[in-house]
Design a protein that fits this description.
8 helices; CBS_dom_sf; repeat
């Protein structure tokens, strides 16, 4: 598959150039190139070089479709605490669940904010009374929380995670709350781990 990747990136490319990139001799590659042409992963044109074949293009389309999968297909269960949860209980929940942040909701289950390890660490260092403070006092509040919906693509979620330098995103849908204003119902969370696992599964299939 290394040969297919090289052809995809550099086509048209000669057998000699492929051999040079792989640091092997041209005769060593002859058999592999022939097999890939027969299997339709690559295509050869005399005096021009190698191009991606139909199967190679199909594989790239499959990978693109993979990134177009919906967040709702791979998101995990959210780790949630209520606004009035104490810092002490929030820290316990954080470490028991082994996550980087907690999603904070109101009594109706609507998104109120997110509390990260850094948020909790900052308030507890040198503050012996911090344990009794409600988590709502230190969380990042809802208007400033970056979210995704189950219908967003994995690619969109990954871009948000990278752009905002965060580890995970709450997955939300519009809430039917009777409170004034617009509210989000938390239905999951998507993390770097979710996305990496999906990519590793995709590579394993190759």
């Amino acid at each position: 598959m290394e040969i297919v990747k090289i052809v995809q990136k550099h086509a048209p490319i000669t057998g000699e150039q492929i051999a040079e990139m792989l640091k092997v001799s041209r005769p060593t590659l002859r058999s592999d190139l022939s097999k890939l042409v027969i299997l339709n992963y690559i295509d050869a044109k005399p005096k021009v070089g190698y191009f991606l074949g139909q199967k190679g293009n199909t594989r790239q389309e499959e990978k693109f479709k993979m990134l177009q999968k919906k967040v709702g297909e791979i998101h995990s269960v959210p780790v949630i605490v209520r606004e009035m949860t104490t810092i002490q209980d929030a820290v316990v929940s954080l470490f028991l669940a082994n996550v980087g942040n907690l999603i904070v909701t109101d009594e109706e289950g609507n998104l109120a904010g997110v509390a990260s390890r850094k948020d909790l660490l900052k308030v507890t260092l040198g503050n012996p009374t911090a344990g009794s403070i409600p988590v709502s006092m230190v969380m990042t509040r809802q208007p400033n929380v970056v979210t995704v919906s189950p219908e967003d693509t994995i690619l969109e979620a990954a871009r948000k995670i990278i752009a905002h330098q965060i580890d995970s995103l709450p997955v939300v849908i519009p809430s039917d709350s009777e409170k004034p204003g617009f509210h989000w119902k938390v239905v999951g969370r998507i993390t770097k781990t979710n996305i990496i696992k999906m990519l590793l599964d995709m590579v394993a299939e190759d």
